[in-house]
Amino acid sequence: MNQSTFDLEAAAGTIRTWLDEADRVLITAGAGLSAAAGYDYGDEDRFRELFPALHRLGLRSRYLVGVPLPPELWWGYWAVHIDDIRFSSGPNPLYRQLSSLVGDKDHWVMTSNVDALFARNGFDPDRIFTPQGDYGRYQCSTPCTPTTYDSRPLVEQLLATYDPATGAVTGPLPSCPNCGGEVEINVRIGPEFVDAPHLPAGRRLDDWLGTATADTRLLILEFGAGFNTPGVVRWPGEHLTRHFPHARLVRVNPTHPETPAGLEGRTLPVPVGADHLLDALTVPHPAPDPTVAP
What we know:
CATH superfamily of the largest domain: TPP-binding domain
InterPro entries: DHS-like_NAD/FAD-binding_dom, Ssirtuin_cat_dom
Radius of gyration: 21 Å
Keywords: Metal-binding, NAD, Zinc
CATH architecture of the largest domain: 3-Layer(aba) Sandwich
Organism: Streptomyces lacrimifluminis
Structural class: alpha/beta
Domain Deacetylase sirtuin-type: 5-294
GO molecular function: metal ion binding
Strand order of the largest sheet: 3-2-1-9-10-11
């Protein structure tokens, strides 16, 4: 779809209508939503600002999974990264816009993002499913226990000994409170991931979807979900649209807005960033002047 010929205002009008007609709304989101909100993992300028030592080593973005680093540098990176994304203070305007847009509609959130920006910006934490984890928790690397731990004290402890010049922490490295072994942030990187804290929300979401009927008008608003982990957000949204005869899917993605064949009339590809769409949706639209002929 060509962005230059895309009619954003017409799409916003369709979405307003679909939202008004919906009985329920499922918001699904990938990394593109947080990028539009100002947390772009691929932003080299922001990376250079936060991690000058790592930038001097030749690294250029926060996509560091699989990059071998000494433990002192690895934990220095995690401390700064999580403090910036997970524990930053103040509301996020884009997420607040989305919360206001949905309003009192019966809704749930399912996201591959682990930054808790939904819960921190007006969405009910009990109605958010984060199957990929949460930067706010850490776990044993083995793991020796299904228990996870609050990462805020850990991040504060690491930042207290963090040296921006070297990018390293100089204090003791984190250890498991249960067995004393190594720990990692509670995000789905490998088979050691502890999903126990997130499963109850997943079951509640299943129950919510299970009470929907063939007549339920479900609107799925998908933001920034590409093909890094399509099985988490993108494909489930398509499956639900096929399953419920009156479901509709809005796919907001500047690079991969395509929607499946066979769902014509019930899907809307929107090839722009979430910020542009939400701005269009939240612009006041005055009622027509009855003295002006249509």
